## 1
Amino acid sequence: MKPIAIALTGASGMPYALSLLKELIKTQELIYVIISTAANTVIAMETDLNLGSDTVAVEANLSKYLDAKDGQIKVFSKNQWTAPVASGSNPPRAMVVCPCTMSTLSAIANGHGDNLMHRAADVVIKEQKKLILVPRETPYSAIHLENMLKLSRLGVVIMDANPAFYQNPKSMQDLVDFVVARILDHLEVKHNLLPPWQG
């Protein structure tokens, strides 16, 4: 099975990203993680996790935090152009940008491949693989909405970090799990976070 790529940008919402990675660890042999400097800072602000400053440390600390097997997570910096995801000859089977800043969404919508994150998303789009963006912003401007519409018309899934309440959440983690469950559903990855709606 080809790996899934997860990109973390500097938007708020790191509990979504870490919970998504925890769930993927259970089913995926290999996960590519692309992390920006801003994302690293936000993780330290929003969680109890300190990843370190270089990709070797980030990979080791993230793997330990998620209880991943050796080699199950491969971390790339956003300037690591030699990464497999930079080439259309070796695309991941899917990619999720979670959380997704509006600047990242804009760059992807307008084909700006000035870092690995943008280039990997461009590869996924052109190779017609699944791309899911999880924006965490409010309110949206007309610029944001136009960029989302452009991407949606290309088949990109725009999945707002927008939990529901019909499942009677008892904790913040329940709200996080709702969004993560929807991401996993679109990745066609099995999970036990949330039962399907039965009416």
## 2
Amino acid sequence: MSSPTTGPALVVGLGNPGTQYEKTRHNVGFMVADVLADRVGAKFGLHKKSGADVVEARLGDRKIVIAKPRSFMNVSGQPVAALARFFSVPVEDIVVCHDELDIDFRVVRLKRGGGEGGHNGLRSISSAVGTKEYLRTRIGIGRPPGRMDPASYVLKPFSAAERKDLGVVCEEAADAVELLLQVGLEAAQNKLH
């Protein structure tokens, strides 16, 4: 299903709660969700049934729910599944925004399904929704330098050089999400990639 649907969409930014994680590479999904919420002029509020911070908005004629689970990344699947049920969003209309080690910093890619590449947030979501076939906005953070453990790398803040471009990267990822929801995966990939 590569053409856009007209039903509600759920856009989930992945990250970890707490100020100590705010500026880390693993929280770039939250940063993109914040950009999307700013664009629609809305503030996040707690959705009690899911344990996620949520914004309800419209993108053109389409209802979208932007969410940031309050759970830690590795157990973010349950809030995502609860939101999808509550808002009647089919799995093919879930868009997960997440950090991606296998893509260079500053690069944004769209895809549906595929592996989780050791990403515990994706693994949790796949398990909770029963499939890997949801949409993904993959925000490149690059590989860790030298022999640094990837788990340590993703929990470190962006470097000073990266921070100079981070705002632009988050805007580009938000653009990619909007394009994906407006024109469908194939057309968005053709334009973006």
